[in-house]
Amino acid sequence: MPEVLRRLLRTPQGAIGLVLVTLVLILAAIGPDLAPYDPSALSPLRRYRPPGGDYLLGTDQLGRDILSRILAGARATVLLALLATILGTLAGAVIGTASAFLGGRVDEAIMRTVDAVMAVPSLLLSLLIVSVLGRGAENAVLAIAIAFTPGMARITRSVALAVRRQDYVNAAIARGEGGAYIVLREMLPNVVAPIVVEMSIRVAFAVMLFATLSFLGLGAQPPASEWGLMVSEARRFMHLSPWMIVWPSVAIAVVAVGFNLLGDGLRDALNPRT
Q: What per-residue confidence (pLDDT) applies to 201?
C-alpha cells in the first residue's frame, strides 16, 4: 500500500484527486459539526442575503445559510453515493467472477442478461427503479447500486477470465473446494485492482446520478440539504439570487472532478506495466 500511495502521488492527477477526495470525505464526516448555523433554521428576514458578512455563501429563499446546508449536505450526497457505488461494485464483482468461473452456457446466459440491462442508460434505469420502489434517498441508493451492477460485472468478468486459468484456481478445484469458496477466496481477491479503479471513477457518476434523482424529486426530499435538491429548489429563484444555484453546483463538480482524477491516478499506480 505505501508503494501504491507513492506511485499515486507521483502523478499530478493522482495527487490532486487524493487531496480533493480527502477533503470531501473529511467534510462528509464532520461537515455538520463545522456548520456555523443550523442548516434547517428558517429566517424569513434574512432571505436572499448575498455572499459576505455573517453568511459567507449567502442565504436562500427561506433565509437558511447556504454554507451550513452545503456542509451538512456533504454527508447525504457523498456518503450515500459511496454506499451505492460499494453495493453495486460488490454485487457486480461477485456476479462477474462467478460467471467467469462457471463458464459455458451459464456464463453465456449471465452475460447476455447483463448486456440487456446495460443497454438501458443508467439514469433511465435508476428512474425506472425509483418509480417502482417509491421516492426517497434509500430507494435512490438502491437504484444506483442496481444500475451500476451490470457494468461492474462485465469489467470483473473480463479480468476474472484470465484468473480462472491460473494454477492456484486449478489446484483449488483439484482439492475439491466448492464453487463459492473458489470464487470468493481464490479468484475475487485477485481481480481487486481494476475493480478499485473503476469504483473510484463510478463514485463521481454516483454523486451526479444521486443529485439528478434529487433534482427530479425522486431522491432526497425536503427539507434535506442534499446538493441536487438544493439546486432544484434554487432554480426558481435564479433571477433573485444566482448564488443559491452556483454553490451546490460547484460542490457537485468538485466531488466529481476529485474522484475522476483519483481514478486516473489509481489506474496509473496499479498498472503492472509501470
A: 83
What sign results for the dihedral spanned by CA atoms 232, 72, 203, 22? positive
Helices (H) and strands (E) in the chain, counts: 12, 0
- Residue of 57, 40, 58 whose CA lies nearest to 49: 58
Question: Does pTM surpass 0.90?
Answer: no
Instruction: Name the CATH topology of 2-269.
Output: MetI-like fold (1.10.3720)
Which residue, 187, 186, 180, 182, is CA-closest to 157?
Answer: 187
The tens digit of pLDDT for each residue in 178-191 reads 878 888 888 887 78
* Rounded CA separation 94/34 (Å): 39
| Digit-coded pLDDT (tens) for 1-57 | 577 778 777 888 888 888 999 998 888 888 888 888 888 888 888 888 888 888 888
Question: What is the C-alpha to C-alpha distance for residues 50 and 66, in angstroms, rounded to an integer?
Answer: 10
214 half-sphere exposure, CB direction, 13 A CA radius:
32
- Residue 59 sits at φ, ψ, to 5 deg, of -125, 165
Residue type, 255: V
